[in-house]
Design a protein that fits this description.
Elements (H helix, E strand, L loop, with lengths): L2 E5 L5 H10 L3 E5 L10 E4 L4 H8 L4 H10 L3 E5 L1 H6 E5 L9 E6 L10 E7 L4 E7 L4 E5 L4 E6 L2 E7 L2 E4 L10 H8 L1
Parallel strand pairs: 1-2, 1-3, 3-4, 4-12, 5-6
Antiparallel strand pairs: 6-9, 7-8, 10-11, 11-12
Helix pairs in contact: 1-5
Bound molecules: glutamine.
The site of glutamine (GLN) has 11 residues, from helix 4.
C-alpha cells in the first residue's frame, strides 16, 4: 500500500488524513523531518502560513521537503500549504519552498468575513467539487509549467506542476476524497 503523510504541525491535518484514508492509501501524521522517509506523498494543510513557518524553524524542514520533492515525493498544498509551496509570496512577503512556479498573494480574496463556499468545475475530477475558501490566497502569476485544473471565474484556484498539486481552497472539509484520490494517482 502507498504511504502518505500529513504535515501535522498546525492546521486542518486531521481532515486531510481522513480524506487520504478514504482515497485508499496508508496515512501517517508527520511531525518530524525524519518521518518523511519512505513516504510517497505529503499533504500540507491549510492553517496559518506564518505560524507554520515559525513552527518549521525547529527542524530543517525546508531542506527536508526540497529533498523529498527532488526524490519524487508528491506534495499537496492547500491554502496555507499552497502559500508555503510557492516560488514567491506577497502581501506580505515571506519565505517559501519554491516548489511551485507561482506567485501567491496571501489573503488575496479578502479577510475572514470574505470566506465562502462554492462549487468548482474540475474536469480532472469529472465534475463539480465543493470548495471552501477561508482567508484564501490568490495565485497571481503562474509559470509556463503550471497546469490549471480549476478556476473560480477567471482565477486559477487549483493547479498542478509535476508531482505538486496546490489549491487555494480547503478540499478536505466537504467530506469528498476525490481530490485526494487524484493526488495519490497523480
Ligand atoms: N490566510 C492564511 C495564510 O496566509 C491561509 C488561510 C488558510 O489556510 N485557510 O496563511
Amino acid at each position: 500500500m502507498s504511504a502518505y503523510g500529513v504535515l501535522a504541525l498546525q492546521g486542518d491535518f486531521a481532515s486531510h488524513a481522513e480524506a487520504l484514508r478514504a482515497a485508499g492509501v496508508g496515512v501517517r501524521e508527520v511531525r518530524h523531518v525524519a518521518q518523511l522517509s519512505g513516504l510517497d506523498g505529503l499533504a500540507i494543510p491549510g492553517g496559518e502560513s506564518s505560524t507554520l513557518l515559525h513552527l518549521m524553524q525547529a527542524e530543517p524542514w525546508f531542506d527536508g521537503l526540497r529533498a523529498f520533492h527532488a526524490r519524487g515525493g508528491r506534495i499537496l498544498g492547500t491554502c496555507a500549504g499552497a502559500i508555503l509551496l510557492a516560488r514567491e509570496v506577497v502581501s506580505p512577503a515571506q519565505e517559501s519552498l519554491g516548489l511551485l512556479d507561482a506567485t501567491v498573494e496571501r489573503n488575496g480574496f479578502g479577510r475572514q468575513a470574505d470566506s465562502f463556499e462554492t462549487a468548482l468545475d474540475v474536469p480532472a475530477l469529472g465534475g463539480r467539487l465543493e470548495a471552501v475558501f477561508i482567508r484564501a490566497p490568490r495565485f497571481r502569476a503562474l509559470g509556463p509549467g503550471v497546469e490549471v485544473l480549476a478556476r473560480l471565474g477567471d482565477e486559477p484556484v487549483l493547479v498542478r506542476q509535476g508531482g505538486v498539486l496546490a489549491a487555494t481552497f480547503h478540499p478536505e472539509i466537504a467530506g469528498d476524497a476525490r481530490l485526494h484520490a487524484l493526488f495519490t494517482r497523480n
